[in-house]
Amino acid sequence: VLDPRYGMYVWPCAVVLAQYVWFHGRTLPGRRVLEIGAGVSLPGIVAAKCGAEVILSDSEELPQCLENCQKSCLMNNLPHVPVIGITWGRISPELLSLAPVDIILGSDVFFDPKDFEDILTTIYFLLEKNPHAQFWTTYQVRSADWSIEDLLYKWKLKNIHIPLHSFGADKEHLASSSLPGRHTIEMMIISLARSDGT
């Protein structure tokens, strides 16, 4: 999905995650949602439209990404949704002062293996502060060699695979986009592993 007026591109993983958010929209009013690496922010925008209290974030080192978050909010009549800079792997004042969250969203954040540990460090920090929260994430399978299993174990996190057909995202065309059908996209929910190892 490309909006030429604003030069903003919506990645296929964002469309799939937004579909999951929409599918669970009735559970979102009053829940606090943080989208990390938000970019154009489609999943976060959908969560806000469903009644969630949303905060959008992207790297504080990438002002263009933060601007895209703000543009998306304005285009969708959500001028009051806060946009903050959070850089993965960095415990910043913005991260430390973040209000409690129930759901963390991240679409296609597992893009480059060199960032995987920084992402999970940030997720672990957020989940430790919010033990009942969940990280809803979609990712594109780019290499059979890439895995976060060892990192999840290291950071005492667990993941549950969510089949795309369970929320109607296994179609060739999704949200007027033919993109998801041409990519192998997976969805999982990451949460804290309990002390008994489950």
UniProtKB/TrEMBL annotation:
Quaternary organization: Interacts with HSPA5, HSP90B1, TUBULIN, UGGT1 and UGGT2. Interacts with TET3. Interacts with STPG4.
Subcellular localization(s) per the UniProt record: Cytoplasm; Nucleus
Catalytic activity reported: L-arginyl-[protein] + 2 S-adenosyl-L-methionine = N(omega),N(omega)-dimethyl-L-arginyl-[protein] + 2 S-adenosyl-L-homocysteine + 2 H(+)
Protein name: Histone-arginine methyltransferase METTL23
Pfam families found in the cross-reference section: Methyltransf_16
Coiled-coil boundaries: none
InterPro entries xref list: Methyltransf_16, SAM-dependent_MTases_sf
One biological process term in Gene Ontology: methylation
